[in-house]
Model the fold of this input.
Amino acid sequence: MSVKPSGKNDNPSVILQRVGEITIEDRPVPKLVDPHYVKIEIKYTGICGSDAHYYETGCCGSFEVTSPMVLGHESSGVIVEVGSKVKTLKVGDQVACEPGIPSRYSYEYKSGDYNLCPEMAFAATPPYDGTLCRYYLLPEDFCVKLPSNVSLEEGALVEPLSVGVHAGRLANIVFGDTLVVFGAGPVGLLTAGAGYAFGATKVIIIDIVQEKLDFAVKNKLATHSYNSKGKSFDEIKAFVVETLGGKLPTVGIDCTGNKFCIANTIKLLAKKGRYVQVGMGAATLDGFPIAYVAENEILVTGGFRYSVDNYKTSVELIASGKINVKPLITDRFTFEESIKAYQYFKEGKSIKIMISGPE
Ligand SMILES: [Zn+2]
Done:
């Protein structure tokens, strides 16, 4: 389904003024100056936990909002203008927008880990404006064209899916692996789904909210689920061992940032198991099972956002039907209702809230 550019000449933007205060304002339409850039008319934006953190506390991780900032970074849209050196995109193309631009001169960029670039300009991460506006500029190679069987709504879910794809790559998930994921929020669900698509034969997702667990299994993002509410580590482990035919999982990914979940994920792993930390919580941690890591040669790494080709892989996973992201969208708001959408996010009833527009 093709969506036409609006042809409008304004740039309504959803702006976090200060903690707890969001307004919609008309900002200047950005001008295409760099010949390698394209101008995108944003069509859909998903609300992410980080946006809500800034809204509620002004902070997320080590970042702090000190001046008004446009929110949003999970977007898709239609190309409305291309720079003179753009080769792969044309006006009218529908794209998923990768929202973080590294310095092309950094060591991290050159060595293939551009997500770790210290000069990264990431949408809706202070001081950089986000994508919840009408017009947004990106370099051509940070837009991934959506094939005709991937909708713009699905395109906006490429961002959180790419976090899961990146984590799966870091853990080297291959056919025959078994995976345990703690946390069944959008990133946990998509991380489980990506691991399953990469060939993990059994994927166990663990959370304390039964509806989310049922959602994961029903939508084939995980093969098994476990509600750990009030359960001891031994009870969780007994379920995992039984599910895996007497074995322990080869890969564990924490998508909660919670210290108990982190310790449990690691202690569940088989010898030589691979562990990825995706969830963000406290800066330091009590109760980290360091002896278990040493004695079992557990490989521990962090997973931060996404890197080379993760967006492309995500679009391919959706296009090929290996992951169905659509059911994650539980609530829809228009751009004009953005403030309401952020308030609704706080109630914690949704999996993914999608904002359409501006019209
Ligand atoms: Zn996000």
About this structure: The longest strand covers residues 37-46.
